[in-house]
Write a structure and sequence with these properties.
Blueprint: H1 2-17, E1 25-27, E2 42-44, H2 53-57, E3 63-64, E4 79-80, E5 90-97, E6 100-108, E7 117-122, E8 128-133, E9 139-141
Parallel strand pairs: 5-9
Antiparallel strand pairs: 1-2, 3-4, 5-6, 6-7, 7-8, 8-9
Length: about 140
Amino acid sequence: MNRLKLSFYFVGLAALSAPAFGTNVTANVTLTRGHIIEQGDIKLSPESPPGSDALMERYIGQQMRRTVYAGARLSANHVDRPTLVRRNTRVNMIYRLGRLQMTASGRAMDEGGAGDIITVMNLDSKLRVQGEILPDGSIEVIK
């Protein structure tokens, strides 16, 4: 029993001493909500340990959830995957059945990024279906 308590204690210490996602990354410029982060938008803090370049790569290509001013530190709560499909926009729906593929126009009832499952309404039949957002912004209908 004491050995178990001791191992949890060391795991807790390791978690407290490990750098959190983004604690060493700061904004070079003011990053507004919805902005997609590019290479020159962020930098590593001077006190960041060597080999922290991989930490910066986690942010490149992410979308800002809220505004962060120049010089402020970034955290995981500040970023999210980019939104490819917005609510009420027209989308291309893809139905696949074996080797057969059909396309139709639809309207997104939700918003999301690549890999998200959203509801889409077929504009011809008014039928609502679930589909996965593909990297090109089209929706593959789930059977």
